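[09:14] KT: can someone run the structure on this one? pasting the chain below
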Amino acid sequence: MTNILVTGGLGYIGSHTVVALQQAGFNVLIIDDLSNSQLTVIDRIEEITGIKPTFSQIDLKDQPAVNQFFQEHSVHGVVHFAAYKAVGESVEKPLMYYRNNLVGLLNVLEAMETHEVDHFIFSSSCTVYGQADQMPINESTPLKKPESPYGNTKKMGEEIIEDFVKATSKKAIALRYFNPVGAHESALIGEVPNGVPNNLIPYVTQTAMGIRECLGVFGNDYETRDGTAVRDYIDVNDLADAHVKAMQRLLEGKNTLNLEFFNLGSGTGSTVLEIVDAFEQANNLKIKYEIKERRAGDIVEAYADYSHAETALGWRPKTPLEVSMQTAWAFQRKL
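[09:31] RB: done, structure tokens below
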């Protein structure tokens, strides 16, 4: 069996990727510190796939613990999700984000070098492009200074990995994804934020459920179709599929560079109000919302050109937005 370590494997995208890796025949090991995830996700993964993944509760900033894990387990590839991910919070607590996201990454890479693990997939983000000058964004779009410390940790992470693969001849892929939405069709796993959601769809579903009184829409004075910010919403199951294809590419030696970059998005930009409308239409509901001030660190618009991933990985998004809105709501109801 090929053993794949998934850091942050009990989180939102991580748990869906664990399921997809298991269903593709990989043996999955999970490291998670449970700072933004729940232990019960392990049982839900087992319920979906029939396989209980090996789990270790480790803070990746704890270098001796990370090294011991690699010493005790045979690892053939790493998918690295574990990171803090809230744009707004990163603006308020930049040092916390730099310490967690970069020290954790460094410790994993050092352990890979020590224990001769050759294949690495990095959970990156479209935030590395900052506010791009033209749409859609492809992999040759110039990187700009990200608008938030969170985005900067992803950009710096990519630079660290670039230097790492040059020095070691390891093989890595950075997947730059846009805005993940939806949940598993079983409604057993999905996005469960701690406290007030930072992402749009959990805020929408919690408002629909009555947990939140009203959805806050941050800014209606952007130069867009309806004044609200434009993003590219990609189904989490499609993202999980891309991680499987990326790992297979590395393991089969099909990569053309030691570090490759791929954008993962739907290729379509939607405004916040269009997403609210799509959710209402898909689930026959009304969402109460109010316009608030723009949020620090937010850009005006971003949507992907995913043609490089389609050509090289054989990947393309398959899930309609309507289905993502339905699975997100089904998961919220099941909660």
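[09:33] KT: thanks! The chain has a mean pLDDT of 96.
[09:34] RB: yep, looked fine to me
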